[in-house]
## 1
Amino acid sequence: MVPRRGTWQPLIPNRYRWPIVLLLAATPFVAGVDFALGEPVTSTTALERSMPVWAWTTLLMTAGTLSVVGYVRRWPKVCILGLHLSGVVFFALSAGIAVESVDVHGGFRVPWLYLVIAAASWLAALGYWDQIRGDRR
């Protein structure tokens, strides 16, 4: 017999929530630094080669900076903008990597990780937008 559903609600306590949201916000900044350090052209996708490295670096570092500054300064609209930009860029990177790496043998791990970051960023941005609008469902 399967036990009935429990009453636990999986809410993350504040002392753990802050590191989690700061890690999510800092991820695009770290990825931007990685782009700035450069990679061999053979290890980049056609999508990544569609813009200069400095453009990817700027987009990612801007997203990370806006998100972290928004959190630290408690400026929700700045944070939302950074998280949305992060979601857009990571979604694009996920799609670009998926096109070139996913086949019948797999290759979906990295695009999936980028997609998770994109989705988490967008969902956080949407949640914060609801919060500042007063919609706390």
## 2
Amino acid sequence: MLRKVGIVVLLMVATGSFGWGCGDDGTVSQSSWKGMFTQVGLGAYPMDLEITEQTGINISGKLIWTDGPFGTRVDTQTRFIGTLNGNSVYINENEYIQGHGVLIPTVYNGTIDGKNLSGTAQHGGSNVGSFQLTRQN
């Protein structure tokens, strides 16, 4: 019996199916995350992340920016590609869908803990901020 339990746990670890903010099937596809991005030297403003596709560990979607530093109104959407490996998330924001004023490319490294996703952002190898998001669906 112990051997069967060990195999099941090993499979769960190998496939990342513990459910860190994931759906019942271990995925994050079609998920929406909302929260704040805190940019170094410029303060905090809203950040929305929509994961629209997931194939294995590969994910893609868009980031939605409605407000910028100092309360400036923006209407910017960007596309990203990335990976979800266990509870670790890597996102490469690499293309404008609409709008402007976002540093591209920006790389986000985060960790999912329950319904929360938080981490840091880098542009050109330098830390440019941090983010804290909560899953909405």
## 3
Amino acid sequence: MIECQAQPSAAALAETPERRAEPRQQVSGSLWMVDHHGSTVLRCQCIEASRSGLRLRVPLGYGVVEGQRYELRSHLPGVQPLTEGFDLTGSRWATVVRAQFRVNEHSDYLDVGVVFDNADAPVLSIAGSPLAKAVV
């Protein structure tokens, strides 16, 4: 049986406790998610960013679930970055900490929260400001 939930109401969202310690920045741009085997490469939309993670809109059908690790890339090798006007550059490994199915009038998707792995060395940045740090 498949259970489907509509978007939560504004009242329900207001009751949800905030789990993030850092302020978020609203962003809009595309990123690539690549699993550690390189067998899954998918394009997603970045919605929010903070120093420790991102909120992403991910297409259905790729099996993205909590606990999985992905490399988030601004572009694939040999390909122009997708982030024009978004100014997110670099590559960063992150772990999925939340994946919620969303249904609306225009599309169905996963609302995915990721936390950067080892946030102690800079690599991923928005407009020149580091968001997270990479493993050296």
